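Researcher: Next entry in the queue.
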Amino acid sequence: MIDNNIIKSLGAGSGIDSKALVTQLVEIERSAPQGRIDAKREKAEAQISDFGLMSAAMDKLKSALTALTSKEGLYSKSASYTSSDALVPTKLDTNVQPGTYSFEVRSLAASQSLSFAALGSPNDAVGEGVLTFNFGNWNRDGNQDPTSFVEDANAGSFSVTIDSSNNSLNGLKDAINKANKGVQASVIFDGAGYRLVVSAPSGANKELQITAAEDGDTPTNNDASGLSRFAFNANVAGIADVEKQVGVDAELVINGLALKRSTNNVTDVVEGLTLDLLKASPGEIVTVTVSDDKTFAEEKIRGFVEAYNAFLTEVKPAFSFNKEEEKWGSLANDSLAKSVVGRFRGIIGAAIPGLTNSNFSALTNLGIRTQLDGSLTINENDFSKAMSDNFADVQKLLAPYTYSSSSDITVNSFGKQTQAGSYDVVITTKPSKGYFAGAQMDAGVSFPNFDTTDKSYSFALNVNGVESGTIQLPGDVVYASATDLVSAMQSAINADSKLRENGITVVVTFDADTNSITMTSSRYGANSWVDVLSASSDAITDLGIAQGSGVKGVNVAGTVNGVPGFGLGNVLLPKLGEKAEGLSR
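Model: Structure for this entry, 585 residues:
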């Protein structure tokens, strides 16, 4: 048979290496598909490498774009000022209004300083209980001695607890400092003993009132031992001897307008400009001139143009024909990669949609032109004119810009999904805070001699869903005014540990027309309320504070371009899926 003849011819004695022949035949059979596999692998490896190259080039472009569009890039300011040791500008934010400002520093702010009776050692026991600190202003007599205290309703209060773990002068000092409320405590040896020295934050309205509760009892502040030694209020004998320095405000004049500030670091006189007041210098005028830092902005614009051109240069080999190797780049036919570059070119050449209040809508208005190869060039004449004559329009074109035509509506933020454009916002329901309005106070409650001796004014609240403990007004106190009374109430409420732990505060006010007290939550919206859970008989009879529910707050409601939005507290959000999605007002 033929196959037998072939086998015989390839067998022993034929002189042919049959094993090698078989191996070669197999390799020939496999060479074609293996070549295709190797080609595909080589192409995939080249594409992976070129995609990595694109990613690195895009990162560089992103860095340049971020530097350009950030507030610091286009809204940066520079300042010049007359040499003076009275004040110095220390910070310029991007929102400073360019202009010339004249300042005169008439006096510096100072902190109230209190020095208490000396102890024999910093480790001496001071007594256990609670010290409560309130911020406000002391009325003073002709000798500048403190007489009565007016609490700052917006400043809040804080308490420190002294127990067996920290019952020492040093322990009290550390507890005050750890509260981190701006009050500084030190233990100072005066040559005879160790004194606790307490410094309030600077300013006339940051002075301290300190009450002591020994072992949790009602504050008395008249004991010669225990924590009452560190009380500072109208019931303390020799209060003037404790105070070593009063709190005063800084006085300065800006462009002829006299102002007072509680600190020598002034941040709110000119928006975005921070000043350090160094020395009182009445009569000396310090001029500060603020201007747009156009040079810095120009650097960022030129840097972006260079980065964009570098991006095109770096990715070009992945798409173009290589004459030396006589082949196309690995991404020449990749639709995804080509669309990325195409998208960049489209954005660069297109007008900005929805841009209002600006004469510029595209890069060409700045003198930035697109060449046939897609790269950018700068027409220096047009660019210079745009920077000098229309710099505000340059800023609006290149950096995120928000604007509200109503002082009642502020744009808080926007998201990546928010589309540029103008949106008509209509507020149909204004937000409100929850409150509890007390009944008319007893006719026998009169000022300036409202005496609480032998009375007990206590109550418990539910504020925004959090129940307080029993809130007790200080006893045996004579209130000189309704303001003093509601100030004490507010301090007692905001010092409650359960409310404080949840960041809840209230504002207590007095209405002279209705002779009643109102407690208002600091939160807006439907989750804001103040209910009275219980009240003592004296609180009910004298103060009109009785068990009952208050009035809940209301969430804001409105429309954005005619579409109802979602209101939470005083924040209105557009409906999901709308062009304004992510915009917060």
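Model: Residues 18-69 form the longest helix (52 residues).
Researcher: Noted, moving on.
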